[in-house]
Amino acid sequence: MTENLRIVAHYLNGKILKGTAHAFTTDGPAFQLQPVGGGTPIEILFQHLKAVFFVKDLQGNAKRRNVKGFLRMPGSTPRGMKIAVRFQDGETLCGYSHTHVSGAEGFFLFPADDAGNNIRVYVLAAAATEIAVGVAADMLVRGAARRNTA
Prior knowledge:
Blueprint: E1 5-11, E2 16-21, E3 30-35, E4 42-45, E5 49-55, E6 76-77, E7 80-87, E8 92-97, E9 106-111, E10 118-124, E11 128-133, H1 135-149
Antiparallel strand pairs: 1-2, 1-5, 2-3, 3-4, 5-10, 6-7, 7-8, 7-11, 8-9, 9-10
């Protein structure tokens, strides 16, 4: 018996949908999401998304302060290469990826803060204004932290 994936879909326009999916694949233009509370499954088109968050819990913890940065990790770990993404809306994510390829439509990122609610994130490259790898990822995250405290 397979457990459904808990997913939070973040749209480019700021809309957020939560639900579950029996399967998730990036092979097509969309995936099916069963909304929280039931109802008819919704077809989610990748072209309208910023990112797809695979989470431990659909409720999350609003009181938790997410750690910003890489937590003293080297440039490459068993979780992949260090990577940071700045989205069009100004949000910055940092983590590690085995699947990032320049020019690809998207890639999976494993968050640097593994104590948070996010297990992994499928990032849509078109939703990013900047994607940095290795040392450049550290610089992007530090720059984002300075902008957020200014």
